[in-house]
Amino acid sequence: MKLEEIYTRPETRLLRNAHNTINAMGAVGIFILLLGVGFSKAAQNIGMGLALLALLSALTLPGHPLRGILKREPLAWMTGLWILYLVLLAHFTAQLTPDIAADQYDGAWKLSRLFLVLLVGFWVGRSFSNPVIPAMIVLSSFFIGALIFHHDQDWPVFGVTQRRLDFWENPQFYGLLSGTILLGTMLLTRDIVGHWRHWSFGPRLLFWMALLALSLNAFLISEARGSMAGLLVAVLVAGALLLARFHKGHYFTRTHAIVTGVGVVLLAGTLWMAYDRAEERFSRDLETLQQAFSSDEDIRPTNMGIRLVQWQTAVPLWRERPIFGWGPGSGEHLHEQAALPNRYRSAGNHFHNTHLDLALWTGGVGLVLFLITLGTWAVSLWQTFLAGGAAGRIMLFGWCSAIMFLVAGLTQTFITSQVSWFFLGAFLGPPWGIALARRVARESRDGA
Questions:
Q1: Cα–Cα distance between 106 and 90 in angstroms, integer?
Q2: Integer Cα distance of 124 and 433 in angstroms
């Protein structure tokens, strides 16, 4: 079935009204979800509930495009396979460990929230013709949340404030969120500010400057070193892709090239300031690593030392069940089995590495399946990126967001928290939805 056939209009008025009602519910749900990404778990859940209800309702209607998308889109198939694997794995491991059966099923639900990428993407593609609007909603969400955070913490300033701060969720996630917003603010400068002759140029420029200042300050005061590394890798990848497109001569205007160059300089300065601020902590981490590899003494219980001991403890546990793991809800059980000394324990029933914890809980099969799903998502954006324009920049922002998540996940387990899955939905979903909508429109034109 061709995509233009999937998008045929319903023949009856009643059915058409039902389609419109469901589409409106999905659009409202996604708007609320995206608006809550930066500061409200309640808004995230409400938005997800409305969008999910709209999705399930759409499946009951004949002629709704969702059915066709689920049948033919590789990302939909991979997401479904991921959820099916988690359900079967939870059922199997619950039989092996009946005392934590409820935890296994609960863990399966938490990890299955990868479907948020698909859910957000579908309704974004259906609801927004302008590819920049979803990103603007997310940026505005962070802007609101950053104002609330800075106000509640008595306006902390990087390099001045020395007291302990109460970050939303935790410093690692807030560093990931603010670093991703910072990079997005630079990549989408042209789209945020608009044309200098337009009446909205002044207010939009002020918004861009305020967003840049808030995200930069929040990123630096979080001192999340994993996110600093993630930002560095994302900047290098973005720079390589943009230079490749610039070399071909049909992606940049000269103005855009200048703006991007300024952005690269600012981001380089940001990374330098971040390193300068956290140099003592980086040096302590390096000393801990040197001690771990060159001495038989106990590793010092620094932040890096705690992680090293936890990783060393987790790897033998994974080797006991390398293929299918211990089950999606086995985090607390594994921590008890590991019997870590108190000085090497930390908050959370995980081992401070997203990839390692995924391998522990779902095995090598689950980790590979998760990465293949993300790879399927990334490949689906390529043609839209090559087309350039605002949609191309949104694709690039999506890739950079995924890179930051994967790199920062080397030193922190994000997938145990709700906000991290909504992060993936909000930053990875819209690019896929926009690419899908562009593909539908292109095939419709070709078939006309």
A1: 9
A2: 6
pTM of the model: 0.89
Q: Give domain limits for the chain.
A: 3-280+352-447
Calpha distance 80→67 (Å, rounded)? 13
Nearest 5°: the CA angle 394, 232, 189 is 35
Residue whose structure tokens are 């590394």: 229
Dist. CA 434–CA 394, nearest whole Å: 9
Contact at 8 Å (CB) between 118 and 429? yes
Lookup: tokens for 129 = 């013709």
The model's pLDDT over 315-368, given as tens digits with 9 standing for 90+, comes to: 999 999 999 999 999 988 888 888 777 777 776 778 889 999 999 999 999 999
In angstroms, what is the C-alpha Rg of the chain? Answer: 23
Contact yes or no for 222/230 (Cβ under 8 A)? no
Q: Cα–Cα distance between 89 and 327 in angstroms, integer?
A: 6
Alpha-carbon distance values, 287 to 47, 218, 326 (Å): 46, 27, 33
Report which of 40, 356, 319, 6 is spatially closest to residue 168, judged by C-alpha positions: 40
Asked if residues 236 and 264 have their Cβ atoms less than 8 Å apart, the reply is no
Counts for the chain of helices (H) and strands (E), in that order: 20, 0
CB 16 within 8 A of CB 10: yes
Task: Report residues of the chain scoring pLDDT below 50.
Answer: 1-8, 10, 249-252
Residue with tokens 């990126």: 385
Instruction: Give φ, ψ of 156 to 5 degrees.
Output: -65, 145
Give residue for tokens 């990890």: 111
> Which of the 8 DSSP states describes residue 8?
P
- Side chain identity at 32, as an amino acid letter? I
CA atoms of 271 and 294, how far apart (whole Å): 30
| DSSP one-letter string for 374-441 | HHHHHHTTHHHHHH-HHHHHHHHHHHHHHHHHHHHTTS---TTSHHHHHHHHHHHHHHHHHHHHHHHH
